[in-house]
Amino acid sequence: MRLSDFHEFDLIFAADELNISALRRVCPPELQHKIALFLENTPLPDPYYGGASGFEDVLNLVEKRAAEIVEKLVNASGSVGEL
């Protein structure tokens, strides 16, 4: 992450609370609202601990959530709103 990313992008997604904490430490206070967990209120599971299917399971979660985000952005009327 670069400091300019917080200014350039409307949304900054993190995989888990550890990532969010790291982002919040370097993010300007007035831009903290742009940071969110990718899966809303749930951290992305670590695929390394899910056996052979762990990576497939995480990929499915990411693809599903990405589709939801795109749909909400397409349907938004000029504002990102609650994702």
Structure, explained:
This protein is mainly alpha-helical. The protein is 46% helix and 7% strand. It is built from three helices and two strands. It has helices spanning 3-8, 17-26, 54-75; strands at 12-14, 35-37. Strands 1-2 form a two-stranded parallel sheet. The radius of gyration is 14 Å and the shape is flat. The model has no long low-confidence stretch (mean pLDDT 91).
List keywords for this structure.
single chain; about 80 residues; mainly alpha; Rossmann fold; two-stranded parallel ribbon; 3 helices
User: How large a portion of the residues is in β-strands, by DSSP E?
Assistant: 5-15%
Mean pLDDT: 91
Full CATH superfamily name: Response regulator
DSSP helix fraction? 40-55%
Please indicate the count of domains. 1
Q: For the record, give the distance between the C-alpha atoms at the N and C termini, rounded to a whole number.
A: 21 Å
The H/E string reads HEHEH
Q: Using the 3D structure, state the CATH architecture.
A: 3-Layer(aba) Sandwich
Number of β-strand runs: 2
**Number of DSSP helical runs:** 3
